[in-house]
């Protein structure tokens, strides 16, 4: 569906993207995870074709994405990071204006407007001025304005920034529905929870470079530790230190033990059965699984939110 | 063409949604109401009888009043209308270039040239509408009051709108270069209120200064900068039915507008957003 080959771009002395290579399959929900300033939005703009890379190119289907190719944009729906709506106008008027760019015949456009308003759950507010909408509602309408023309590829550039949890869930549901209907979605975010929840396959971008790419499982497998067991230091556990060290690599820290289970104990059932046998109460045990945050930390040496 | 129309509509609606254009409309309505009050309270027939005129003399008297009134209306209308129009339109481009707005616009199947032309025609259309509302309103009031239906005043709509279009092209260029509505507005006001009237007197200034370099500089600036002061004089003349005696200011200002728009499109095409 989409091939990004060796794409680089510089802004002055800053290399915003350094030889990006990515492939996104048709119908995929692909995530692009990275901190602010990593180059996610720049890459989105190059895919849309309104930013010209210094090197490399983007191919969609069999078509080379040419800078400022107006017709190509009919295949893409771009949801920008910022709200870009006419606040004084109604939801319906906004969609009517944005739909006007796609030469959609009047009656069909009316039907599409009704359809997308239903999808973003703003049907009953279509006559209200956007300025009276909540942040989440504006975001949903922003997405509606981008998918009105039924694009093959939807590019979402951090569409949930500043959105309340309820609206965020509504946006997730909506995008997942579109994906189930066959739309290819590229979703950029700096929230690892979002990436984990939404994107079966993703790439991690940092300082303009793809530093890792794969499914969630593949990415987590890059880590030395998949699971970490924390056990509080109590009279019982101090007594059973030797037995605990059988689970895996044991580190004695202030107030607790940290254990990285070996292959045998990677299965939770075996681990908990063993701990129960040792007579260690469940309320002093904490088991944490590796997250994308850990992957990012191990690859870059810093947190995603740094 | 369809995209330019959509973008013009987009700009038009944006402008309508802003209070500033409603203010413009309200000011125009206020002026019209003032004239209604004036015309209702002053009886021309009574005035004519007071100075003992009748028959043809009365007709001449009314015609003279109408002529004086036209000049008294058209000159301030040109300045006031353009002042408000420039003020209202100066933020169109900087607003469009704000992050988010420009992203969504550039992701649509419209070329950058279409975006600029759409903004241009949309802004022009709303000013044309406002000026037409005021001038047609005044024409109707004068016609009803004095029974003088002289259509030459209506040509002011064309002249004021044309002058706005010339200045608006400069607002667009400065907006694209600087993304600053204040700067676009200030520069346009400087040309409109200071440079153009001063350059109209360049021959007299040259005599006073008596320096060849200054003379060339003033001449150069005169031919580059839109000739709004002369357009104002042409506007008064055509409103009085005197016609246009010199086309050079119109042609050179029109060329300025075309070149400025072309330059805006070229720069906009090359900029990354």
Can you offer a commentary on this structure?
The complex is a heterodimer of chains A (306) and B (273). By secondary structure, chain A is an alpha/beta fold. Chain A has two domains: 2-215, 3-Layer(aba) Sandwich (Rossmann fold); 227-289. Chain A has eleven helices and 14 strands. In chain A, the strands form three sheets. A six-stranded mixed sheet of chain A has the order 6-7-8-3-9-10, sandwiched between helices. A four-stranded antiparallel sheet of chain A has the order 2-1-4-5, covered by helices on one side. In chain A, helix 2 crosses helix 3 (106-119), helix 2 packs parallel to helix 4 and helix 3 runs antiparallel to helix 4. The longest helix of chain A has 16 residues, at 165-180. The radius of gyration of chain A is 24 Å and the shape is elongated. Chain B is mostly helical. Chain B has one domain (2-51, 58-270). Chain B is 83% helix and 0% strand. Chain B has helices at residues 2-17, 19-41, 44-50, 55-89, 92-96, 101-106, 112-146, 155-178, 181-200, 202-209, 212-224, 228-239, 248-270. In chain B, helix 4 (55-89) runs parallel beside helix 8, helix 7 (112-146) runs antiparallel to helix 13 (248-270) and helix 8 (155-178) crosses helix 9 (181-200). Chain B is globular, with a radius of gyration of 21 Å. The interface between A and B is medium-sized, with 33 and 26 residues.
